[in-house]
Design a protein that fits this description.
73% of the residues lie in helices and 4% in strands. The chain is mainly α. It has a two-stranded antiparallel ribbon. The longest helix has 32 residues. The chain is globular, with a radius of gyration of 15 Å.
Length: 171
């Protein structure tokens, strides 16, 4: 339950920080939430590996959406404009800390996890847009990209969680 509360706090901190041009504060709070969740999870090494993978996935998938003009972020930072903003990458990292936390049950049901990503991934972006962190999400192609991106990302994260977890448990 604490994992869920920390995730929600971090999500709102990042979104409201980006919406109000307080990116640094939002990002700091997201990183803090990641650290809190990692500290509470068993096997910190495995979960840190998942966080790194999630950041890479977020960087590739959200930067692709950005460069295809499927999504426009509100916030501006010193970060290169062609890359997904740091706060959204922080949210990808924070999401990874839930896979062995309050969302651990989806490890047993990866198809439900993938379908959840296809549906709820885009809904999180819609919520971010309604709260002002995202200026625009451009049409059906953007929604399809977001849904497919999150479905694929969750499948990859769950697969690597299982494989890396098995390898780390053998040692």
């Amino acid at each position: 339950m604490i994992n869920f509360i920390v995730f929600q706090f971090g999500w709102f901190a990042a979104i409201l920080g980006a919406a109000n041009q307080l990116n640094s504060i939002g990002l700091f709070l997201v990183v803090l939430c990641c650290a809190i969740n990692l500290r509470m999870l068993p096997n910190v090494r495995l979960n840190l590996m998942l966080v790194i993978l999630a950041i890479i996935l977020g960087l590739v998938l959200d930067s692709l959406a950005l460069n295809l003009n499927l999504i426009v972020y509100t916030s501006s930072t010193l970060w290169p404009a062609c890359l997904a903003p740091l706060w959204i990458l922080g949210l990808w990292a924070l999401f990874a800390t839930t896979l062995n936390g309050y969302l651990s049950w989806i490890n047993r049901y990866p198809l439900i996890g993938v379908l959840g990503g296809v549906v709820f991934g885009p809904l999180a972006y819609l919520a971010g847009q309604k709260l002002g962190a995202i200026q625009g999400i451009s049409g059906l192609s953007a929604w399809l990209h977001l849904g497919l991106s999150w479905g694929i990302a969750i499948l990859l994260l769950l697969t690597m969680n299982r494989q890396w977890g098995a390898k780390l448990n053998q040692k």
